[in-house]
UniProtKB/TrEMBL annotation:
Keywords: Kinase, Membrane, Serine/threonine-protein kinase, Transferase, Transmembrane, Transmembrane helix
Protein name according to UniProt: Serine/threonine protein kinase
Domain of life: Bacteria
Transmembrane segments: 16-37
Keyword Transferase included in the entry's annotation: yes
Basic and acidic residues compositional bias, start-end: 43-52
Annotated region (Disordered), positions in chain: 38-79
A GO MF term: protein serine/threonine kinase activity
Biased composition (Low complexity): 53-64
Length: 212
């Protein structure tokens, strides 16, 4: 060839680069295969447990929603030592309950929830309701909202001679109020007026009102 010209020496492949390229290619292939394989069973199990717990949480919140939908019982309000004079009556909605007259129709035919009636001619005495139902509780029973809701031995009037001190009566008014009357006794023979003394516990709006 011409003087001074040297042919380029052939490039030799570096073995290090070849090995690195081969390793990189193998890693890529393994990565693709790994992506195609199903998940590890342990991981799947954890996922199932997570779903189960989330389902449980959902059902729990559903129960809580139902509990919130259930109406809450009203709180009782108690009054002690109410003197109810003959032919006077109480309304359970009043706070505090104060005995009232029914001058037009008389307490037996009025619209009040609990009355004390005394026949002025024969002296017969009774308690009753002109706006609901009564239940005399047995000595073994203790008056409560639950007991008064469950009892069905209804009457509208009770002779005073059927009661003793401590007797309890459920009053279920048509307005939806429920009460426990505890009879404490009546006026003495020498008292200038005729009356009974009661304690009263009222759960207002405990039930839906019924039409009169």
């Amino acid at each position: 060839g011409p003087p001074g010209f040297r042919p380029a020496a052939p490039r030799t492949k570096r073995p290090g680069l070849v090995v690195a390229a081969s390793v990189f290619g193998a890693l890529v292939v393994l990565g693709v295969i790994g992506a195609l394989l199903p998940n590890d069973p342990d991981t799947t199990g954890k996922g199932d447990r997570t779903e189960a717990s989330s389902d449980g949480g959902a059902s729990g919140s559903g129960s809580a929603d139902k509990a919130r939908d259930k109406p809450v019982d009203p709180r009782p309000v108690s009054y002690e030592g109410i003197d109810v004079t003959e032919n006077y009556a109480l309304r359970l909605a009043d706070h505090p309950p104060r005995p009232l007259e029914d001058e037009d129709s008389g307490v037996m035919y009025g619209k009040k929830d609990f009355y004390f009636y005394r026949d002025s001619l024969f002296g017969d005495e009774q308690v009753g309701s002109a706006n609901g139902k009564l239940v005399v509780l047995k000595n073994s029973q203790k008056g409560s909202l639950k007991v008064c809701r469950e009892e069905t031995r209804y009457t509208e009037k009770i002779g005073l001679d059927q009661l003793t001190s401590g007797s309890q009566i459920c009053v279920l008014s048509k307005a939806g109020h429920i009460a426990v009357v505890t009879y404490r006794g009546k006026s003495g023979a020498n008292d200038p007026s005729h009356y009974i003394t009661i304690d009263l516990t009222v759960w207002r709006n405990a039930d839906e009102a019924r039409e009169s």
